[in-house]
Specification:
This protein has 220 residues and is mainly alpha-helical. Among the domains are: 44 residues; 67 residues. Helix content is 66%, strand content 9%. Strands 1-2-3 form a three-stranded antiparallel beta sheet. Helix 2 packs across helix 4, helix 5 packs across helix 7 and helix 8 crosses helix 9. The longest helix has 24 residues. The protein is rod-shaped.
Length: 220
């Protein structure tokens, strides 16, 4: 089998059609052509044809991953799931992920640290909820735990929970609700738990926040 001509695709710049024995054989990227040094007149053995297909498939898989990464950073699992969704083979998926990891475009540890910093920058959130969300994104429990511990130092947990509690109580006061202190405490405890704070953090914050809130009501 011989390549009889190579033509650029009219509607897709950067891609070319390869014709073998005057019949369409495969559409490929300019990168694949350059990498394999393909030209009209070249003979293609069965092994070379397979190499051509595999090279183009790898290129397509990498381009798909890069487009997916262009919107925001992704975890390894997210990239793997996207490539499976696009029906790439296991070999292409593994090769693509290894390539992107080697260049730093996939880095679960850095993703986890960035995620924790972003989620706690403007809205207090607890470790339990952070861990749950990171696990759902495909971050391992060990990597997620290290990221949370690094970004949220132990001493900051109670401070963050206290800030969240004060915001909750301030909103309650603005609605002019004068509920029984026990009901306020129950709602606040539920709110902090939903935010992902463990009970050993919630308990002391409840005492401080309720006491501070009561004192504020008395001075109003």
């Amino acid at each position: 089998m011989r390549i009889t001509r190579i033509e650029p695709q009219k509607r897709r710049p950067g891609r070319h059609n390869i014709y073998v024995d005057d019949r369409f054989f495969l559409g490929v990227s300019a990168e694949t052509l350059l990498r394999l040094s393909l030209r009209a007149g070249d003979d293609l053995s069965p092994r070379q044809r397979e190499t051509l297909r595999r090279t183009e498939e790898l290129f397509s898989a990498r381009q798909t991953a890069l487009r997916y990464l262009s919107t925001r950073p992704r975890t390894e699992r997210e990239i793997r799931d996207k490539l499976r969704e696009k029906e790439f083979g296991d070999d292409e998926i593994v090769s693509t992920i290894n390539d992107l990891k080697s260049t730093g475009l996939i880095n679960d540890a850095e993703f986890a640290r960035m995620y924790v910093r972003d989620k706690t920058a403007h809205r207090p959130i607890g470790r339990v909820l952070l861990m749950r969300r990171l696990l759902l994104l495909g971050i391992s429990k060990e990597v997620a735990g290290e990221a949370i511990a690094e970004v949220q130092k132990a001493g900051n947990q109670e401070e963050a929970a206290m800030a969240a509690a004060q915001q909750f109580l301030a909103r309650s006061r603005r609605t002019s609700r004068r509920d029984d202190p026990r009901k306020v405490r129950q709602r606040l405890a539920a709110f902090l738990t939903r935010r992902g704070y463990p009970w050993d953090v919630v308990q002391p914050v409840l005492k401080k926040a309720i006491a501070t809130g009561s004192a504020s009501d008395e001075t109003e």
